Amino acid sequence: MSSDKPIRSVNLTLLPSLAFLFFGVALALAFVIASDKVGKSIGQLKNNRPEITVKGVATLDVRSGQGSIVGTLSWRGENFNDGRAAMLAQRAVMQKLLKEAGFAEAEVVFAASEFTRLEPAAFTEFAPNQDGVRTPIQRAPVDYNRFARGKVPEFTFAQTFYVETPNVDRVLAFSRQEIYLEQGVTLSRGTPTFRLLQLNEAKQELLEAAAKDAQRRAATMVAGSGSKVGSPLDASQGVIQICAKDRVGESDANSIDFYSIEKTIRVVVTMRFEIVKE
Questions:
Q1: Range of the domain at 113
Q2: Can you state the percent helix, strand and coil of the chain, rounding each to 5?
Q3: Whole-structure pTM value
């Protein structure tokens, strides 16, 4: 017997389907490769696109809209009742002086008074050495802000008051006024501070002016090159400086001045523009 198997016939109707399938795969692959090349070409064109980056600066002179100052009444002594009476009497004097300076009652706030009892510093005047001889020990420096100055307890009183008003000139005048209180009560005042009340509105105006300045600088830099400044590609806000008037620095750090009535605001923006042919 022969072991040869009959040869299976090929179905010729499948050949067109397979050919079409292979053609579709090849076409899709070609499309992907072409898209990748086109994308790279576009990206390269974008990267090679001429552009310019400049900084724009704008300044604005403004006047502070609010002033404030902090003061403290203080007393120190050995008699608690004397200190309490002195503080009450001189507080009334201080309130009268503030009213005479032109401050309204609502513009002045007195905090609650505070007192502290200071105990005398304890010392060991002598100590025996190995031979039993009493030798003096050198005293260490004493912090008299924590201890009494003598051998009996002392008391300290302190009361802080705050003044805040839109009348900045009045605050400045009060900070320079010489005031001497009585009954052992002393007055200390901090440096007056002055703030801007409409800073956000001023910043908006300055940012617009700085953007125009950046565009003007870019146009100056490309003038005569046969090109012109096109659309802005990117913009970012830089430093904001609030300085005393006419004392603006060129630092790249933000800064705020709290101690001048007349101030100058300086805003910097960085912008990137497209350069196009004229």
A1: 66-195
A2: 35, 35, 30
A3: 0.70
